[in-house]
User: Which sequence fits this backbone?
């Protein structure tokens, strides 16, 4: 996988989890900035193995003449049972884009780590991998991989920027208490 985000924020680990993985106003705002529309979320639900799962559906804008304008997407998230409330959280997100060419060949796996570094700080790390369910022709595969990396890089660069704004808002006036 590739490391796309690795940064310490002045936000507690539990707050970071709430911002990213609940139906928060941060997520709503970030989606509208990214022009991600029609979002629907299921609630977190614990399964037999002890992990929690939820899924998201939304429509993304692509606007690449070779690929298309929009695609619906499904994101299946797993919160691993090894996570410890307030200490660290490990979330896997598998993203399937349903309306792009070769959509049945690949998906993206994002792994989020939220690690508490002190009472009011946490490290956010995101690793990403493009996974293949079937092996496409070499040229197609490199096209998919190249397009995926650039889209993902852009997405996490913006997530970092929006999170820095959120951090500033949350800590406004609070100082280094
Ligand atoms: C999530 C990875 C690939 C996909 C896209 C596919 C092109 C295929 C080219 C073939 C459009 C929000 C991306 C970027 C769409 C957006 C996905 C997002 C950013 C046909 C030659 C959606 C994180 C995420 C993960 C994967 C991204 C897709 O939270 O290039």
Assistant:
């Amino acid at each position: 996988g590739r490391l796309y985000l690795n940064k310490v924020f002045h936000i507690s680990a539990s707050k970071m989890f709430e911002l990213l993985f609940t139906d928060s106003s941060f997520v709503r705002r970030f989606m509208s900035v990214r022009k991600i529309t029609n979002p629907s979320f299921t609630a977190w639900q614990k399964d037999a193995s002890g992990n929690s799962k939820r899924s998201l559906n939304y429509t993304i804008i692509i606007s690449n003449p070779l690929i298309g304008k929009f695609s619906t997407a499904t994101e299946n998230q797993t919160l691993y049972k090894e996570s410890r409330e307030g200490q660290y959280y490990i979330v896997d997100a598998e993203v399937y884009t349903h309306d792009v060419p070769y959509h049945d060949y690949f998906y993206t796996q994002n792994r989020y780590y939220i690690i508490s570094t002190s009472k009011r700080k946490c490290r956010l790390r995101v690793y990403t991998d493009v996974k293949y369910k079937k092996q496409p022709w070499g040229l197609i595969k490199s096209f998919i991989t190249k397009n995926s990396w650039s889209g993902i890089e852009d997405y996490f660069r913006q997530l970092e920027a929006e999170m820095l704004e959120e951090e500033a808002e949350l800590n406004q006036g609070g100082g280094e208490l």
Observations:
- Residues 138-171 form the longest helix (34 residues).
- Helices lie at 13-21, 25-33, 138-171.
- The chain has three helices and eight strands.
